[in-house]
Input
Amino acid sequence: MAPFTGGGYTHDVYRKGVGPGVVLIPEIPGIHPGVLGLGNHLVDNGFTVAIPSLFGEPGKPSTTGYIAATVARACVAKEFAAFATNKQRPVSLFLRALARDLNASTPGKGVGVIGECFTGGFALAAAVDDSVLAPVLSQPSVPFPLGRTRRSDTGLSESELSTIADRAANEGLCAIGLRFSEDWMSPRDRFTVLKERLGDAFEVIEIDSRPGNQHGFGKAAHSVLTLEVREVDGHPAYEARKRVVEFLTQRLT
Output
């Protein structure tokens, strides 16, 4: 672990592995065991993983009370602008600087960035920087989807989204978005807008969580790459995680 400063912010960053770089942005409430498990899975698949500690206590298990307390603090932080629409979030400047730094010290053509839940959209915002070649948006939930406008807001400013659309059209940038079909925190409208703007460069993985679904996902199913994964071939969340690894490998090596 070492502190890293970028964009006017300083956060501790945990780094492990060899190979192409991947910035893994933790979901709320922080670097919980599920996030660490995902990070170790990426390391085992040949990546150097850098996890910035943006909130919470690293290693602390996720509980309802812990999540609620972390959300309350994150909501008022200017760094995240949890409710703002058409907004460049200051944390994106930190993440772009971290991506550039990781890219400079790892092999490969560029780096991947994975965002989850509260940080899902931050992964795409990081791709304004040329060092980012493989953004992954897992159940992006900011801005919190209160009202029609926020449900369809991508979590980026128009300037950022235009830059990314230009990269997709002219540089071959690609992104993946993942969500559960009934997840109100990560609305389908958000992915619809991204698909309209990015076209085939935006791959959508939507897992069925309707009542009575084949794999027994509950109506509150949310964390595609961490809490909902069962390491059994054919399990949709496990297959989604496999696809993310494949995507990162294709784009970065």
